[in-house]
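Tutorial, part two.
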Amino acid sequence: MLVGILALQGDYFLHMQALDKLNVKHILVRDSKSLYKTDGLIIPGGESTVISKMIYRNNMNNDLIKYAKSNSIYGTCAGAIVMSSKINDYIVKPLKIINVQVMRNFWGRQIHSFSENIKLSFTKKYFNATFIRAPKFKILSNDLTILSNMENEPILIRNKKHLISSFHPEIGNDLSIHEYFVKMIDK
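Running the prediction step on this input gives:
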C-alpha cells in the first residue's frame, strides 16, 4: 500500500510522521502523475483557499474527482473543506467528493484554537483533537456515518470510501484516526 499526502500547501509533514510511525509507505503528491501512483490520499489542513487555488492551478481538480470514485481520501480541516459539496462562501471551489455543507472557521479564529478530548465510535478510548479555525459540517445525505460529535455537531464523518474531520489528528501522538483511514484504504 502507498498513501499519498497532497503537498501543495498545509501541514503535510506531520501526516508524513504519523504514517512513518505506522510503517505505512507514503509519497508527497504535487501533481496528477504522482496521485495515480497511490492507493489512498490525505488532504491536510492548512489554508483552504490556497489549497483549492493550487489544485486548480495544477489542473488536479478533475483527476482528484476521478480518483475519489475508486480510491479513499481523508481530508483534515481545510482538506475536508476542499472535499465538501457546498461551502458557505464562494472563496473555495469544492470538489464535491463527500456530501456535506461546510461553514468555515465555525469553531473560532486562529486565536481561539483549542484541544478537546472526543469520543470516537470505533474505539473505547478518547482522542485529543486539536481544532484550528475548524469548519462545521452539515450532513446533506443519508450515506454518511458520523464517527464523532462535539457539542452535538459532527466533527468526524465518513461515507463508503472517504473520511473528513474538522480537527487535526496529525497533531499529537495518537494514531487512531490514521490507522482507521489506512484500514479504509485496504477494504
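Residues 176-186 form the longest helix (11 residues). In part three we will examine how such features are distributed along the chain.
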